[in-house]
Amino acid sequence: MDNIVQGFTQFREQVFPSQRSVYQRLVHDGQKPKALVISCADSRVVPELITQAGPGELFVTRNVGNIVPPFATMMGGVTAAVEYAVMALNVRDIVVCGHSDCGAMKGLLTPGLAEKMPSVAAWLRHGEAARKIVCDAYPNDIDDKRRLHALAMENVLVQLNHLRTHPAVASALASGQLTLHGWLFEIETGHLLVYDGEAGQFVVLAEEDALPVAEAAAAPRLAAAAVGSPAARAAG
Q1: CA dist list (Å): 39 to 58, 68, 98, 112, 159
Q2: Which residues does residue 192 pair with via DSSP β-bridges, in sequence order?
Q3: Helix 77-87 crosses helix 167-174 at what angle (to 10 degrees)?
Q4: Which of 65, 82, 113, 149 has the smallest count of CB within 10 Å of its CB?
Q5: How many CA atoms lie within 13 A of 227 on its CB side?
């Protein structure tokens, strides 16, 4: 706690004075974050630091395993954060960000690790599909480190699928107002692996590259538009 207090003192005396106008503007105008980032609560993964985002630029929710429960299965903090970000803050991008050496993913691969933590074990069931994919669809002879890395990636994709079940997200995607991103931060290398939905794989983000996306904002669409209304079909 001494370090935390010292850090705040440094912020208040050395950082805040030069940023005072920024914070005053954020209070006066309100927040207008560019994106919602759903990341792991792991202390080594700080979305604002990784992206070098300033105050008011990101709306962040963090939890064990960067989990997004499917809508209606758990009406909790993640669901509320997603709904608020899309409907109240009008974010146009949502990022699900996993990371290497994730303790939650280790818990998924070895369920006994969480047996004394029933709440954690129950929470990690939202990543069970990712574990099943890695156990059944990946080669049996890959080493433990590669298996853990693969699970972290597959978990990001599973949580993106869960995200699409949220009504606010489904509506924004259908109206072409939202883009989804899947990221994996490699703690040991500093690399950011980004899911390319067109290629169907994670790629290392390079400075000169355009940012691949998991699901791009598309032109507004309605399923019924392709076939027309029942009256129009009858008239035809």
Answers
A1: 12, 10, 6, 24, 11
A2: 185
A3: 30
A4: 113
A5: 5
Q: How many Cβ atoms are within 10 Å of 35's Cβ, its own excluded?
A: 20
**Cβ proximity of 196 and 202 under 8 Å:** yes
Strands 179-185 and 192-196: antiparallel
Cα–Cα distance list, 113 to 110, 190, 235 (Å): 6, 27, 64
Report the C-alpha gap between 96 and 36 in whole angstroms.
Answer: 9
Give the containing element (helix H, strand E) for 157. Answer: helix 144-163
Count CA within 13 A, CB hemisphere, residue 196.
13
Residue 215, C-beta contacts closer than 8 angstroms, at least 6 positions apart: 160, 173, 179, 180, 197
DSSP state of 69: P
User: Cα separation of 179 and 84, whole Å?
Assistant: 16
Q: How many CB atoms lie within 10 A of CB 33?
A: 18
Q: Is residue 75 very low, low, confident or very high in pLDDT (cuts 50, 70, 90)?
A: confident
* Number of other residues whose CB lies within 10 A of the CB of residue 103: 15
Question: What's the predicted TM-score (pTM) here?
Answer: 0.89
